[in-house]
């Protein structure tokens, strides 16, 4: 039944429990400003009502590593996705192009590699895309 889970700006350690993926009614998940680490669980892709996912270190930081799970493309109601200031690597999943409601994406200050997926052009509502301070290469998509 939980719709909002805000655990920002604490001293939480360890990883994000995979069991959060069972919170199917979850609309807002904020884990920023902690000392969380490990991979972002693929199971978060089961939270299909999620509108905002904020996992960054705007204050004193998380250290999420690994890649951005492709299952993020299942979050069809997502409008805000902040994964900045972590240690995420790998490529940006093309499945982000499935998220037509996205208005803000911030993946800055990570170690993401590869190109910018052309599928992001399908995100008609996108107003902010911050990919600064990564290891991206290739061409900027035309659209």
TrEMBL record:
UniProt KW keywords: Glycoprotein, Leucine-rich repeat, Repeat, Signal
Main location: other
Annotated organism of origin: Selaginella moellendorffii (Spikemoss)
Source species, domain of life: Eukaryota
Location(s), subcellular: Cell envelope
The name this protein goes by in its record: Leucine-rich repeat-containing N-terminal plant-type domain-containing protein
């Amino acid at each position: 039944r939980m719709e909002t889970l805000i655990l920002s700006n604490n001293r939480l350690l360890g990883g994000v429990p995979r069991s959060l993926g069972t919170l199917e009614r979850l609309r807002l998940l904020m884990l920023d400003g902690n000392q969380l680490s490990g991979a972002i669980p693929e199971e978060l892709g089961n939270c299909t009502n999620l509108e905002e996912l904020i996992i960054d270190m705007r204050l004193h930081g998380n250290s999420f590593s690994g890649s951005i799970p492709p299952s993020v493309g299942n979050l069809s109601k997502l409008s805000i996705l902040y994964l900045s200031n972590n240690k995420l690597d790998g490529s940006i999943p093309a499945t982000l192009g499935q998220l037509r409601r996205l208005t803000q994406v911030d993946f800055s200050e990570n170690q993401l590699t590869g190109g910018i997926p052309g599928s992001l052009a399908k995100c008609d509502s996108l107003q902010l895309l911050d990919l600064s301070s990564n290891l991206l290469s290739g061409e900027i998509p035309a659209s």
